[in-house]
Backbone:
């Protein structure tokens, strides 16, 4: 009996970026007790447009959207086990890290950070794996 | 697929309900020869190789849950997406595109997690 594989989507449709921008990925997949999310950029939850700004702003908005998506699927930021964080410039590491501390004050998830090229002049992209369930 | 190059990695590991697949690049699955080419040609080869690996382990492209699609330059993002859609037309997995430097001047590398 194969394990089920289910697409998860944010309750706020404005945050369904793969649909709005017609991209070939799903916002997330639930499978085998885990949730796998696609890389998320800073997106305005009202307009659905990209929301560029400072590293602090983009990190805060992206993690807020990640929380929404995880909660839409019955999980939460507290259930994240691994994050991959992509930055446009490693010089901004501390600016990203300071915001992370606010979102993950105790027992933060495992995390890898690296500097890469990002789309559309955005400063940060974050993907994660979380435990499904509350 | 990577064994011939002496890379210290397994092609894939089954653990729990999942398969964790090492980064897949455009090598000939018979000869192991590198098939460097355009982003499009490499992406086709890499997807076909990923399909071989998954199916050899009893899984399939349809059972992918998360992919890190690595490309050598962000400018090829749309070229990647065009090939990507052909292999994952419906209910695609979660994905992040990483623009990074890839070994042996390859233009594409696919890192994947699938249901076993």
Residues:
């Amino acid at each position: 009996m194969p394990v089920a594989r289910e697409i998860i989507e944010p309750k706020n449709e404005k945050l369904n970026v793969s649909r709005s921008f017609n991209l070939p990925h799903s916002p997330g997949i639930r499978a085998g007790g885990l949730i796998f999310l696609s890389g998320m950029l800073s997106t305005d939850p009202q307009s659905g447009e990209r929301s560029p700004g400072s590293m602090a702003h983009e990190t805060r908005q992206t993690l807020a959207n990640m929380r929404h998506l995880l909660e839409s699927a019955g999980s939460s930021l507290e259930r994240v086990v691994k994050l991959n964080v992509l930055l446009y410039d490693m010089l901004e590491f501390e600016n990203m890290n300071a915001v992370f501390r606010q979102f993950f004050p105790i027992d933060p998830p495992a995390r890898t950070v690296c500097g890469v090229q990002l789309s559309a002049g955005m400063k940060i992209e974050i993907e994660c794996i979380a435990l499904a369930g509350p | 697929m990577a064994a011939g190059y002496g890379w210290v990695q397994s092609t894939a590991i089954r653990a729990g309900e999942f398969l964790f697949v090492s980064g897949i690049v455009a090598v000939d699955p018979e000869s192991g020869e590198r098939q460097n080419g355009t982003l499009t040609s490499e992406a086709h080869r890499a997807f076909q190789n990923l399909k071989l690996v998954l199916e050899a382990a009893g899984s399939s492209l349809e059972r992918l849950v998360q992919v890190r699609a690595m490309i050598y330059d962000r400018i090829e993002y749309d070229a990647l997406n065009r090939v990507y859609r052909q292999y994952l037309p419906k209910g695609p997995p979660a994905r992040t595109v990483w623009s990074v430097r890839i070994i042996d001047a390859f233009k594409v590398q696919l890192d994947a997690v699938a249901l076993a």
